[in-house]
Each structure stands twice: as C-alpha cells, then as structure tokens.
C-alpha cells in the first residue's frame, strides 16, 4: 500500500515557533525556552483513552506545558475505540491536534490513512538521544517517525502478597518451573496460587506473550507479531502447551477455570489484595500496583510487591511492554502547537511531572529514577529501561484489532476458549492461525 508522506518541520523551525529563536542552539531546547509564553492564546486539543486518575495526572503534564508556553490545553477522552472516535472527528471537521495512541497497530493504521504528520526534527533528535531504539521503531511507519512513546507499561511483572509468601515459606521464583512449584506450595498453605482475569481476554494474551517471548525468543516473537510466522508453528504449540499446564491445574487457579473466566482484571487484583484474599499472586503489568494501592489501600513494597516474570526453559526472562504514543494529526486546527507539545513530552522534564504523581512509567532513559514516588515503581522503571532493545511491544497491540483487540473475537476469545479447555494446543494454534490470516488479509 502506498503511504503518504508529509513535509518535515525542522527542529529549529518548530522550536522557534514554540519557544523563540534563541532556543535553536540549545542542547535541551524545551527546558531552555521556559517562560516566554510563545503560544499564548493558542489551544492544543489532545485526545486519548485515559479517564479517572490517569486523565487527572496527564492533565498535570498538560498544565506544566501550558505554564511554560502560555498555551491552553483541552483533553478529550475517547474511550477504548480510539480509531473510530478519531476517524469520526476527522470526518466531522473537528480533529484534535494530538492523539495518545495506545496500540502500534492503530498508529500504523492512522499513518496508512494519511492522518499523521511526521514528527519534528527536535522530537526525533530527543527520541534518538533519550530512548532505546526499539521505541523509535514502534513509533515509525516505513522508517518515518510519527509517534512519540510518552507512557509505557511493564507487562512482565508478577504481583504477590508478601504475607502469603511468608505463610507458605516461599521466595520469589526466577524460573517458570519454580513459579509453578511455588504456586503449589502457596496452594498447600491455604490460598490458590494465581488469580487469573480470564473474563478480560487481553490478560490472557499477555500470559501467552511472556511465555512465548522467553521460550521461542525475540526473533520468532517479532515474526509472529507481524504474521510472517504462522500461528501453527511448533513454537506456538509449545508455548500454548506450557501455558496449558497452568490453566488445567485446578490447584493453581482461584476458582478453577470457571472462576478465572468469570473474573475481570480489577477482580483479579482484589482476589490477592482485597479484604478477603483468595490467591497469593496475580500476573499483570505494573498498573496492578495502582489498583492495589488506590482501591484496596495496600502499601506498595510492604503489602504488595512484584518479581519479574520468570524465564521459561532455557530462555531469557521476558520484558513485554505496552505504551501510549503521542501523534500529531494533519487535520488538527493547531498542528504547530501540537508539534510543540510533543517536543515537550519528549523531555525528561515532562515525564517527571507524571512520575511524581504516580501510576506511570516512562521509557525516557534520561528521567531520573528519583522522580518516582516509591522504591517498587523505581525498580519497575529501572527494569524497563535496563531491558533496552530487548523490550518487545505487546504482540496483540501490534495486530489488526479484529485479531488482537476485539472483545469476543480473535485472539481474546480463542485464548478464553483455551483457558476453558486447554487439552488441545494444536487445535487452538490452528484456530488462531485461521483468525489471524483473515484479519491480516482484511
């Protein structure tokens, strides 16, 4: 497919529009510019999926940008279906200037539709300097940078109750086999090992991806993510077999398979950290900490802690990530100010604002870890940064939404079916390949 290109707004030109010509020679242009209010009277509209505390904390970042530049900001929450909402706004002549895109596949779709402006030279330089190269890769389409990853998720963290581990006499495991052994020991002490959020199919894709990345390795992971490798490949069957050992073990799952299928993500956290614990561990991303803290009053590091998702077999411990990329729409009413916002978001200064508020990880390597509010978040952030280019983006987020991101369809549904009956990994792999082939062809 022919993909449209846009003219590059040079770093100095974009910077001058935003912070004044004197900033053009600065090595840290956004920080150097503060206080001249060059965008006074202009409004930047930003659309994204965030609501609640995430929207509130991102607003603090926007407020810091406004204080620095004089611009006004307006945030519009899109709900989960970013593509549909943004498309309708473009058609209606009411496009936002900036969109926070939560999936690589959606960013690619926006670029292919010709909706996006190439990011400025200033932003690209900041990405080259401040981020591991993998983040530039995920923000680019055909070698052109369209997306800046501002917020990241670390999806290779297993959260546990220290009290449950103490009672069972177990330590955080470092291999997958030891993880299952520790789970049985926890179960013998009176709690189920794992609370699994099978009602939300996306959590099951994350289970699979961590196992697959560790067991099959990054090259096959990348090939499967782009459907260059078929889901019927033996490596997929092997990973499903490994996952199936957990799913079919009623001693390990809180409520068994039916209980897992009737548990959503917040419920899975509640079963470990709520007032009536049913399990000792819950696997999901760093955002588990926010739920444990905000909804159940847990002290992170004392009442709730994590260990890295352990290595499977002879593989390396996986680091799977997700994230939200800022993009600038061509049809926005104030794209120059939108581009200036991205130049600000590329700085450690902007990341520090949300880091201090909590519920946030940044892939910006120049962000001082002291900016985070607690030791556990610092450890999670350090793990993500230290992984460098070995980080792999959530595979389902790279796929067409029909396969990797639709409730009751594609990968979500088929892995729920596998949780219900994990007896035939080959049949599940075949069903996944049929769904993937249809979605990628479409």
Automatic annotation (TrEMBL):
This is ABC transporter substrate-binding protein. Residues 1-23 form the signal peptide. The keyword Signal applies. SUPFAM superfamilies: Periplasmic binding protein-like II (SSF53850). InterPro entries: Bact_solute-bd_prot1, SBP. Belongs to the bacterial solute-binding protein 1 family. Coiled coil: none annotated. It comes from the Bacteria.
């Amino acid at each position: 497919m022919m993909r449209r290109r846009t003219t590059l707004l040079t770093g100095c030109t974009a910077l001058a529009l935003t912070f004044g010509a004197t900033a053009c020679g600065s090595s840290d242009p956004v920080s150097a510019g503060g206080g001249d209010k060059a965008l006074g009277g202009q409004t930047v509209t930003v659309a994204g999926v965030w609501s609640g505390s995430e929207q509130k904390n991102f607003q603090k970042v926007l407020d810091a940008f406004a204080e620095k530049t004089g611009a006004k900001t307006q945030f519009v929450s899109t709900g989960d279906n970013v593509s549909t909402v943004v498309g309708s706004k473009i058609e209606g002549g009411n496009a936002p200037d900036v969109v926070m895109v939560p999936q690589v596949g959606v960013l690619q779709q926006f670029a292919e539709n010709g909706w996006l402006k190439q990011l400025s030279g200033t932003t690209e330089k900041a990405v080259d300097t401040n981020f591991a190269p993998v983040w530039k890769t995920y923000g680019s389409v055909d070698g052109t940078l369209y997306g800046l990853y501002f917020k990241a998720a670390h999806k290779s963290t297993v959260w546990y109750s220290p009290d449950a581990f103490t009672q069972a006499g177990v330590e955080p495991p470092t291999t997958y086999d030891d993880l299952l052994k520790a789970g049985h020991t926890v179960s013998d002490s009176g709690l189920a090992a794992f609370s699994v959020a099978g009602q939300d199919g996306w959590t099951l894709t994350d289970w699979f991806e961590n196992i697959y990345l560790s067991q099959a390795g990054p090259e096959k992971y990348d090939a499967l993510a782009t459907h260059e490798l078929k889901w019927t490949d033996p490596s997929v069957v092997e990973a499903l077999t490994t996952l199936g050992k957990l799913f079919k073990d009623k001693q390990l799952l809180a409520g068994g398979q039916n209980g897992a299928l009737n548990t959503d993500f917040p419920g899975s956290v509640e079963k470990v950290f709520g007032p009536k614990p049913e399990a000792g561990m819950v696997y999901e991303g760093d955002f588990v900490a926010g739920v444990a803290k905000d909804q159940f009053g847990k002290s992170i590091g004392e009442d709730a802690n994590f260990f890295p998702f352990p290595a499977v077999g002879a593989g390396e411990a996986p680091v799977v990530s997700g994230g939200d990329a800022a993009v600038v729409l061509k049809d926005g009413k104030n794209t120059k100010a939108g581009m200036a916002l991205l130049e600000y978001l590329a700085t450690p200064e902007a990341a520090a604002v949300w880091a201090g508020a909590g519920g946030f990880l940044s892939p910006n390597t120049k962000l001082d870890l002291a900016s985070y509010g607690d030791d556990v978040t610092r450890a999670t952030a350090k793990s993500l940064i230290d992984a460098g280019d070995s980080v792999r983006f959530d595979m389902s987020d790279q796929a067409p939404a029909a396969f990797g991101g639709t409730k009751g369809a594609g990968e979500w549904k088929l892995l729920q079916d596998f949780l219900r009956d994990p007896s035939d990994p080959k049949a599940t792999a075949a069903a996944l390949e049929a769904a993937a082939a249809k979605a990628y062809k479409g």
